[in-house]
Design goal:
Blueprint lengths: L4 E7 L6 E5 L16 E5 H5 L6 E7 L13 E5 L9 E6 L2 E10 L2 E5 L8 E3 L5 E11 L4
Antiparallel strand pairs: 1-4, 2-3, 4-5, 5-10, 6-7, 6-10, 7-8, 8-9
């Protein structure tokens, strides 16, 4: 089995999820008491999934993509409408095995690359059955 597995959580999310958001930035150091805190409303569904009809969520398993900010248990927003290109993080099926990796394409080869030096690149032989299920656009990581 490949280093990171994914499984579908939800598909075709259609409802809006609206919340309020500060227009400014949040300081990680000393807060500025003089900053005005105005709020606006944001549609989280539209913000995270602009192409809702072609978007689904998966949960990552494993640690092969930590360098890309994808950790074990994170939910990934995947957009099937984006054409996969060199450098995209993709959900791929290689010879029947599902994985999330960075897609590397050059003139004569395709490589699925982990973002963790503890895992090897996966060279895709020319006669392999490789299918790209979509491009990862957001990783939802829960802060502990």
């Amino acid at each position: 089995m490949l280093a990171t597995e994914v499984r579908a959580l939800a598909e075709g999310v259609g409802d809006q999820l609206r919340t309020r958001v500060d227009d400014g930035v949040v300081m990680a150091g000393f807060p500025s008491p003089s900053q005005d805190y105005t709020t606006a409303e944001i549609d989280l569904t539209e913000h995270l999934m602009p192409n809702r009809a072609s978007t689904y969520l998966v949960r990552a398993r494993g640690n092969s993509m930590t360098g890309a900010g994808i950790w074990d248990g994170d939910e990934l927003v995947v957009d099937r409408s984006i054409r996969p290109q060199d450098g995209h993080v993709v959900i791929a099926v290689l010879d029947g095995e599902l994985t999330v990796k960075r897609l590397r394409i050059d003139a004569d080869r395709v490589v699925l690359s982990p973002e963790n030096p503890g895992f090897p690149d996966i060279m895709v032989p020319s006669l392999s059955d490789l299918r790209i299920w979509g491009v990862v656009t957001v990783s939802l990581h829960h802060v502990k």
